[in-house]
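WARN retry 2 of 3 for item q-0093 after timeout on previous attempt; input resubmitted unchanged.
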Amino acid sequence: MARGFSEQGFWRSLQRAAVYAGREVVEKALTLYFAAQQPETPIWAKTVIYSALAYFILPTDAIPDFVLFTGYADDLGTLAAALGAVAMAITPEVKAAAKQKVIDWFGDGTEESRYSAPEGDAIREIVIE
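OK item q-0093 returned
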């Protein structure tokens, strides 16, 4: 794993950032994370992935995450660049796992899920397994 990356730090940062960073950043981070967990992902791709995820979880980066509206722009750019670099490691199963986790946390984007808050509302209470 890349220096500066830890699974615990990733999940903690993702949980904290989910509401502020938004669905797109979270889905990209999860896609990379799930791709890195696949045994068939090459070491060089895992290095790229863990480097991007380490940048995502670091509290200090080019644009501090606490800056409103733009704080996660650099993180999104880093994650998108990493996704482009390791696209061959992003299988349909990896995409499906990331998408399902985002739906679990944010809802499916329908009007009904947008306005109803089911028990254990994913936005207010993100449960990390």
